[in-house]
Amino acid sequence: MRTFNAPGRLDLSTEMLLLPACFRPSLRITLFKPFLWTNIAAKNKSSRSLSFPIVRASSVSTFSTASEAAVMAQDGPINQHPLQVAKRLEKFKTTIFTQMSSLAIKHNAINLGQGFPNFDGPDFVKDAAIQAIKDGKNQYARGYGIPDLNSAIASRFQKDTGITIDPESEITVTSGCTEAIAATILGLINPGDEVILFAPFYDSYEATLSMAGAKITCITLQPPDFALPLEKLKSKISKNTRAILLNTPHNPTGKMFTKEELEQISLLCIENDVLVFSDEVYDKLAFEMDHISIASLPGMYERTVTMNSLGKTFSLTGWKIGWAIAPPHLLWGVKQAHSYLTFATSTPMQYAAAVALNAPDSYYEELRKDYKGKKEILVDGLKAVGFKVFPSSGTYFVVVDHTPFGLPDDVAFCEYLIKEVGVVAIPTSVFYLDKEEGKNLVRFTFCKDEGTLRSAVERMKERLVKK
Ligand code: GLN
Predict the structure, then answer these.
(1) Aminotransferase class I/classII large domain: which residues (predicted)?
(2) Residue nearest to atom 2 of ligand 1 (CA)
(3) Residue 405 maps to which CATH number?
(4) Residue bearing the CA closest to ligand 1, atom 9
(5) 156 and 113 co-located in one domain
(6) Average pLDDT, whole number, for the chain?
(7) Number of domains present in the structure of the chain
(8) Is the CB–ligand 1 distance for residue 254 below 6 Å?
(9) 99 lines ligand 1 (CB under 6 A)
(10) Rounded CA separation 403/384 (Å)
(11) Is 363 exposed, middle or buried (CB count within 10 Å of its CB: 0-12, 13-18, 19+)?
């Protein structure tokens, strides 16, 4: 068997490499080296150097670079079928959410990593889906959304922003917001177009921009408040900028862009004729201030694609119902990309989504109240454990500084947390172009029942020791 020299943290990466394989029907085992941890671990000079075999399932891409893939091909992996992936995706790994949720199962750890509720969505929405299936709403939906859902989205947008839109020509229903992001980017960005991204950023943004061949310009939001670095933005934005990708409330930090910040961004976009792609999936989880859609600011609707989904607001992340809202001249590109990506979205779920969006205001108030309680349990708990907790105004995430516990970086900390403490968090370095920028931060989610949150805090109190 072939062996590789690898830094000391390998037993976790080995597990990570193996775990997704457990869920796959055909396992072709290939010898290969670790992927996620390599960069950070290599920088950690104190790491022990171990030599032992690594196995992984060949159905998961692991190449970090083209040259790594070439070396592997030359060396001849034991199955003689080197992994293949197009250049536009070769630098991307198995998503951190998939890896962490697999590890949570493997180690029986409490999963405060991937953002999915461990409680169910409301009965009135589930019943509507069952009814739609029974009523035979089971064939292809109209490509850009069933009329009932488009109308419900338009009404909600009107209520939230005061803007009246045409449900037929200004909305496209997609398979979750992730597809809305992809359709927007692939439908409106040409290869070589410059797009500004704020780091830390949700992982699909970079991968999708890469698929479109965009040139990414990254601006980092710095703790503790992750405020807009206006001068930096002014220095980066220009007539050559095609779009800014915005996310408010912001994953992973929980930052909400203030009215002043949004106005500053708007003025620069208007001045430089720049589009805004705004991911607002956490808009109903706004705790410390009101959510503002940038599309509602003067001169902005005509240059903005607003994206949202059902998953977070109705605790139905597995339904994958999302949408993009934009004026007809921009929606055209989004709609075209959507037509050839997925064509249409699950029909019965769209009927249920229309029922969901017509929920009374009290539903949203209850949701917010409930999450506020959960947030308090987690934030107070994390502070009591000894973390430095950064303020989170929205989303169901909170970011902390893990350095009081003496681990060298976010990945090492998360490894320790899973294996020695039994709690899963997300290392934030995956959300930066420059991984070093995220090495002190990890993200916890509070979209779990209160008992689970309290148990996680208890485990951390018992087993995490300040260094
Ligand atoms: N949005 C979820 C999160 O940030 C993850 C979704 C996914 O796994 N792709 O945790």
Answers:
(1) 109-459
(2) 115
(3) 3.90.1150.10
(4) 97
(5) no
(6) 87
(7) 3
(8) no
(9) no
(10) 15
(11) middle
**Nearest CA owner, ligand 1 atom 4:** 115
Q: Are residues 295 and 188 in the same domain?
A: yes
Residue 246 predicted with pLDDT over 50:
yes
Give 115 Cα–ligand 1 centroid separation in angstroms: 5
Nearest to 315 by CA among 215, 165, 447: 447
C-beta 111 within 6 A of ligand 1: no
Measured in Å, residue 279 CA sits from the centre of ligand 1 at 13
User: Which atom of ligand 1 is the closest one to the Cα of 426?
Assistant: 10
Region at 83 (left for phi over 0; alpha for psi -120 to 50; beta for the rest): beta
Ligand 1 pocket, 95 CB below 6 A?
yes
Asked whether the predicted pLDDT for residue 75 surpasses 50, the reply is no
Same domain flag for 29 and 133: no
Give the pLDDT score at 59.
23
Looking at the fold, whether 367 and 337 belong to one and the same domain comes out as no
Gap between the Cα atoms of 9 and 90, Å rounded: 23
pTM (2 d.p.): 0.85
Which pair of structure tokens corresponds to residue 311?
Answer: 């998953």
Q: How many residues does the chain have?
A: 467
Residue identified by tokens 């992001």 is: 181
Claim to verify: residue 346 and residue 397 sit in the same structural domain? no
Rounded distance between C-alpha atoms, residue 409 and residue 399, angstroms: 14
Mutational test site, ligand 1, from 95, 102, 116, 430, max ligand atoms within 8 Å of CB: 116
- Domain range for 113 is 106-120+362-463
Dist. CA 170–CA 390, nearest whole Å: 37
155, burial (CB in 10 Å: exposed 0-12, middle 13-18, buried 19+): middle
Cis peptide before 82 (omega within 30 of 0): no
Q: What is the CATH number of the domain that holds 243?
A: 3.40.640.10
Ligand 1 midpoint to CA 272 (Å): 32
Which band of pLDDT confidence, cut at 50, 70 and 90, is reported for residue 467?
confident
Whether residue 90 sits in one domain with residue 40: yes
Residue 57 lies in a domain: yes
- Which residue from 454, 456, 457, 429 is spatially nearest to 442, judged by alpha carbons? 429
Are residue 277 and residue 308 in the same domain, yes or no?
yes
**Beta strand 4-7 with 49-52: parallel, antiparallel or unpaired?**
antiparallel
User: Contact 280/306 with Cβ under 8 angstroms?
Assistant: yes
Looking at ligand 1, which residue's alpha carbon is closest to its atom 3?
Answer: 115
**DSSP 3-state helix, strand, coil percentages of the chain (rounded to 5)?**
45, 15, 40
- Same domain as 177, residue 290: yes
